[in-house]
Amino acid sequence: MQEQKRGLWAIMTPVQREIRTAIFLSVLGGALLVADMALLAYVMSIPFHESVLFLGLHVSFWNAFCVLGVIAIGSFWLSKYAFLVSHHGAFKLEEILRKRLIEHLAQIPLGHIITTGSGALKKVLLDDVKNLHAFVADSTPMIGKSIATPIASLIALFIIDWRLALASIAVLVVGGAIMRVVMQDSVEHRKSYDASQEQINRAVIEFVQAMSVVRTFDDGGSSFKRYADALLAYKECLKAWIDETAVSAKIGMMVLSPMPTLLVVGGAGSYFIAHQSLSFAPFIAALLISTGMADAMMPLMWMSNFIKKSQASAHRIQEIMAITPLSYPAQTYIPDDASVVFENVGFCYEGHTHYALKNVSFRVPTGSVTALIGPSGAGKSTVAKLIPRFWDVNEGRVLIGGVDVRDMDAEVLMAHVSFVFQDTFLFYDTLKANIKIANPEASDDAVIEAARAAQIHDFIMSLPQGYDTLAGDRGTRLSGGQKQRLTIARAILRNAPIVVLDEATAFADPENEEEIVKALAHLTQHKTVIIIAHRLSTIKDVDQIVVFDAGRIEECGTHEALLARQGLYAALWANYEKAQHWDLRAAKEIA
Amino acid sequence: MSHTHHHYAPLRKVFELSIELAGDYQSGYKRSLLFFTSAFIAQGIAFCLFYPLLKALFAPTFVLSDVLFWLGWMAFFGLLFSVLKWKGHDFDYSGYIAEVTHDLRTKLGSALRQMPQEELSRYKTGELNAIFSSNVDESVIHMGVVASLFLQITVVPIVVLVVSFFIEWRLALVMLCFIPSVIPLYVWKRRAGIVEKSDFNEANAALEAGFIEYVQGLPVLRAFNQTGKNAQNLNVEILHVKSVQAKGIEASTLPLLIMGILIEVTLLVLLGVGSYLVDETLLALPTLAAMLVVVSRLSEPLSLFLGVIPMFDLMDSAFLHIKSILNTKPLATKEPNETPQTFDIEVQNIDFSYLGESEKALNDVSLSFKERTLNAVVGTSGSGKTTLTKLLMRYADPQKGTIRIGGADIRSMSNDALMKHFSVVFQDVYLFDDTILNNIRMGRAEASDDEVEEAAKAAFCHEFIARLPEGYRTRIGDIGGSLSGGERQRISIARAILKNAPIVILDEPTAALDTESEVAVQKAIDALVRDKTIIVIAHRLSTISGADTIYVFHEGHLVEEGTHESLVAKEGKYHAMWSAQQRIKAWNVAS
C-alpha cells in the first residue's frame, strides 16, 4: 500500500501548474495596480502643457497619463487571465478527480460501496468535488491579490518615503499586538464551541429524523423537549464564545479599517510637510496606497471559512481514494466445476474488532442446494457476500470449482456466480438492453425466453412500447416485484452455474410472491444454489442446511438430521412453527 | 423540494429578509443598523475632510493652526466612526446573534412539529438537516456583517458624492457617471450567473443521475467490464459538466473584473478631467489630489463586496428555505373543540389524493371500526390501506368526507388530543440516543420508573434490558448496533403499552424480523392489543383470519368487507389472495 499524501494541497497536484500560474498572474496584476495608484500622484503634479525629465526622457502629462492607462489595462488583463487560468484549472481538476473516483470505485470491494451507499458517494463525487472547484477557481486569484497588494504597497511606500512606510507599519503592529493580548486562551473556547456545535448538529439530526416517526406516536412533544434542551445549551455556549472573542474581533476590524492608517499617515505627513521634508506628490502617493496592507487582510479573513470547507471535502475524497482496491491475479484460473467450498474462513468487517465469521468451513457440491440460516447477525449474509467478492476473506479461502475466488479475474468470477438480489438495479435504457446486459451476444429470442421464464414477459408486452420501454429512475416506474423479475430474467440469461440468493429480499414484495416463486424455480434449475433463508418451510427439502450462530457454524445437515439433533435448528424450527400460528384474535381473546 | 428557483437576490431583499428573521430582536438589529449608518456617515465626512486639510497643507502660506484644526476634526470623525461602528457590532458581538439563532431554531422546531405530515414527508431528511443547522448558521451569523457592508457601500459613496458636489461639481458629475455603475454591473453578473447556473444545473443533474446509476449498477457493470474509462455515458456527462462551465465563464467573470478595476478607472478619468480644470485655473491642485484620495477610499468596500457576493447567494437560499418551513400552515383545528365519547371510528365518504397527484388514493371510502374490535385492512400496495390509517391520525385532511372518533370530527381535536388516542407499531423503529428508560418513558412523560419497568416486562424486553451492563440506564447510542431488530421493536411496543392509548394501529410490525425475534415480538403485541380498538395492516393473512372484520382495498376502493369465512366463501379478491398464499406455503427451493 502506498502512503498517500493527504490534505488540500496534495489533492490539487494535478492542477498545480494552473494554480501557480494564476497566483503569479494575479500577483503581477495586483502589483501593477499599486504602481498605478502610486504614480497617479506624480502624474498629477506634471504641469499640463509642459514635460518633465524622467530617466532622460521628456515626458508630457498626456504621455504619462497614457502610461497610467496602459498599466491599468495591463493589470486588468492580468487579473482576467489569472481568473481564466484558475477556472480552467478548476474544471480540469473536477474532471480528473471524478474520473479517478469512478475508476477507483470500480476496483474497491463492492461491500464498501454498498455500506457507504450511493447517496453518500454521490455527495463526494458531486458536492465535494464542486467545493474544490470553487476553491481553485475563486481563491487562487484572491490569494494572489492578497499577497501582492500589501507587499507591493509596502515596497512602494519605502521607495516614496521610508518614514511614512514605518508609520503605516506601526499602525498594524500596534493593532496586532493589542489583538494578541486580548485574544489569549481562545483555543480553549474554540474547542468547547466546536464541541457544542457538534452537539447541536446531532440534536438537529435527531429531531428532524425522528419527526416523521415520532409524530405518529405523539404530537412531537417528547422529542421537541430534547431538541429545545440542546438549543438552550448551545445558546449559552455560543454566548460565552462570543463574549470571549468580541473585543479582539472588534479591535481587529477597527485596525483593519483604513481610518487609523490614514490618520497616522496624514498626521505624520502634515508634520513632515510643515518641516519641509516632504513634498506634494510623495505625500499624496502615500495617502493613496498606505491602506493597501490593511485592505488586503479582510478578504483573507473571509477565506478562512472557505478553506476549512474545502479541506473537509478534500479529506472525504482522499478517504475514498485510500480504500485498497481488490487485487486481481496476473493470470486467471478457470474453475473446474460449479462447487463452492469455504475453507477455514475468517472475516472481520473493517473497523470492527470482533470477527463476523470465524473458522467457517463447508462444501456445496455442484448442482446441490444449500440453505444458510441462523439468527440475524449470525453471519449468513456475510458468507453469501464473500462468494462474489463483495469483501475478501481475512483468513482461509473461498473456492469455486477448486479455484480461489481471488485467483480469477472479475469476468470469470461473475460468469460463474449470479448474486440475484443485490442488483435489482435497472439502467436508464430499454428493458431489452437491461436484460441483455447479462449477455450482449444473446439473440432477441433468447431475451424473450428469459423474460418468459422470469414471469415478466406478459407484463412487458402489456406496455405500449414493449421491450423498447425505457426503464430506470428516469424511465418507466416499475414496482419492486417487477424489477426483481427483470433482474431474475437477467440472471437466467446470464446462466451462471452458481446462484446465490437472499430470500428476504426476494420476498420483499408479498404481492408478487407467486410470480417470483415461479421465476426462481426457472433460475435455479440444474444450478448450484446457495440461499439465505428466513422462512424455514421453503428450505425443508434442501440438500444441506448450514446453521450459523455468532459467526460460527453451529450445525450442518438435512432437515431431518438436524431436527433429530435437538440443537439450535430444532429450536428455530419450533419457534417458526409457533410464529406461523400467531393469531391476533387469540391475543384479544385471552383478555 | 426543488432548488431551481432561477432568480437572483437583490441585495435589498436579503437585507429585508434579515430584518424579518431578526424576529423579536428586530429592534436590536435596527439599532445596530442605525449605528452603522451613522458610523459610515462619520467615515464619509472624515474622508471628505481631506479637501480642507490638503488645501491648508498646500496653501500659499502655510498656517499650522489651520492644518491642525482640520487634522483634529478628521481624528474626531475617525474616532466617532470607530465608536459608532463598535456599537453597531453589538448585534453580532453581544449575544444577539445567539438569541436570534436560538429563536429561529425554536420557531423552526415548532413549525416542523405542526407541519402536516404530508408536507413533512415531501422533505428529505438531509434537506431538513441542512435547513435547521447550516442554513440557520449561514443566514444569522452573517446578518450583522452583511448589513454593515451593505450600508458601507451605499452610505459612504453618497456622503462623498454630496460633499464633492459642493467642492467641485464638474468632477462630482464625473464620479456620478462611474460609481453608480456598480449596480448594473452587479445585476449583469447575477443575470449571467443565472443563465450559466440553469445550464449547469441541468448538466449537473444528468451527472448525478448517471453517477447514481453507475454506483448502483456497479455489481453488474463490473461483471461486464464497463467500469472506469469504459463507462461511456458517465464519462460523457463528466465532460459535459466541464464544457458547460467553460462556456459560461467569460460572461460571468467579466463584470466582476470590471468592478474590480472600476475605482481605478474613475481615478484616471478624474485625473484627466481634473488636470484640464487645474490648467484652466478652475480648480486647485490640492483639491484634485484630495478628491483622488477620497475616491480611492471607495475601492475598499467595493472589493470587500465582491468577496461577499457568494455569501449573498448562500444567505438568500438559506432564507428561502427557512421561510418555506416557517410559512407552512399547520392543519387547522375546527372550533369548537370536540371530545370523543367512545372509541368507535367512523369513516364517511372519504376521497383523498396526495399533493400533486391527480389520481385518488382513496375513493369514496366509508367504514366503521367499532370500539374494542379487531379490524384488518388488506390489499396490494397502492390499494389505499396505509393511506387510510394515515388519515385517521390526520396525516393530511381528505378532500371530501369526514372521519369521526366517538362522534367527534378529528378536525375539531387539537393535535395533542388526537394523538393521545393512538399507539402505532411500525416495521421501522426510531430510538433516541438516550437511556432505554427515557426511550420507553416517551410513551407517557409522567410515568414512574416502576411503571416503565412494568411496561417493559409486558413487552418482553425486561429480560434483555436487565442483561445490559447498565440496565435501564444504558444509552441506546452506546449499544446501538448490538440491539437486534426484534429487541428494538419490543422497546417500541413497551413505549406503546405505557402510553395505553385506546386505539392501536399495527403496520406489518413483524414483517422485517427473523423467525427468532418474531415470536417474542408477537408476544409483546399480544400484551398491547388487549381491550383496545385494533387496526392491523397485514400481508400474511393467516395472522388476521380471526379478525372481527377484514376490509379489502383495491385501487383506492373498499371492495370487500366481512369475516374471513364470509370473504373466502365469496370467492372474490380476498379469496384470490388467500389461495395464492396457501400455494406459496407449499413451495420450497429444492422442488
Topology:
The complex is a heterodimer of chains A (591) and B (591).
Chain A (H helix, E strand, L loop, with lengths): L7 H4 L4 H29 L6 E4 L2 E4 H45 L4 H7 L1 H43 L1 H21 L3 H29 L6 H36 L1 H17 L5 H10 L2 H30 L18 E8 L9 E8 L4 E5 L6 H7 L8 E6 L2 E2 L5 H7 E3 L11 H6 L7 H10 L3 H6 L17 H15 L3 E5 H4 L6 H12 L3 E5 L11 E6 L2 E6 L1 H7 L2 H13 L3 H7 L1
Parallel strand pairs in A: 5-10, 5-11, 8-9, 9-10
Antiparallel strand pairs in A: 1-2, 3-4, 3-6, 6-7, 11-12
Helix pairs in contact in A: 2-3, 2-5, 2-10, 3-5, 5-6, 5-10, 5-11, 6-8, 6-9, 7-8, 9-10, 15-17, 17-19
Chain B lengths: L10 H11 L4 H23 L1 H8 L6 H25 L1 H4 L2 H19 L2 H4 L4 H17 L1 H25 L1 H10 L3 H42 L8 H48 L5 H12 L2 H28 L18 E8 L9 E8 L4 E6 L5 H8 L7 E6 L2 E2 L5 H5 L2 E4 L10 H6 L7 H10 L3 H6 L8 H4 L5 H15 L3 E5 L7 H15 L3 E5 L3 H4 L4 E6 L2 E6 L1 H7 L2 H13 L6
Parallel strand pairs in B: 3-8, 3-9, 6-7, 7-8
Antiparallel strand pairs in B: 1-2, 1-4, 4-5, 9-10
Helix pairs in contact in B: 1-14, 2-4, 2-9, 3-4, 3-13, 6-8, 8-14, 9-10, 9-13, 9-14, 10-12, 11-12, 12-13, 12-14, 18-21, 21-22, 24-25
Describe the structure in your own words.
The complex is a heterodimer of chains A (591) and B (591). Chain A has 591 residues and is α/β, with parallel strands linked by helices. Chain A has helices spanning 8-11, 16-44, 61-105, 110-116, 118-160, 162-182, 186-214, 221-256, 258-274, 280-289, 292-321, 380-386, 410-416, 431-436, 444-453, 457-462, 480-494, 503-506, 513-524, 559-565, 568-580, 584-590, and strands at residues 51-54, 57-60, 340-347, 357-364, 369-373, 395-400, 403-404, 417-419, 498-502, 528-532, 544-549, 552-557. In chain A, the strands form three sheets. A six-stranded mixed sheet of chain A has the order 8-9-10-5-11-12, with helices on both faces. Chain A has a four-stranded antiparallel sheet with strand order 4-3-6-7, covered by helices on one side. In chain A, helix 5 (118-160) crosses helix 6 (162-182). Chain A starts with 7 loop residues before the first helix and ends with a helix. The mean pLDDT of chain A is 85. With 591 residues, chain B is of the alpha/beta class. Chain B has helices at residues 11-21, 26-48, 50-57, 64-88, 90-93, 96-114, 117-120, 125-141, 143-167, 169-178, 182-223, 232-279, 285-296, 299-326, 385-392, 415-419, 436-441, 449-458, 462-467, 476-479, 485-499, 515-529, 541-544, 564-570, 573-585; strands spanning 345-352, 362-369, 374-379, 400-405, 408-409, 422-425, 503-507, 533-537, 549-554, 557-562. The longest helix of chain B is centred in the middle third of the chain and has 48 residues, at 232-279. Chains A and B meet through helix 2, helix 3, helix 5, helix 7 and helix 8 of A and helix 3, helix 4, helix 6, helix 8 and helix 11 of B.
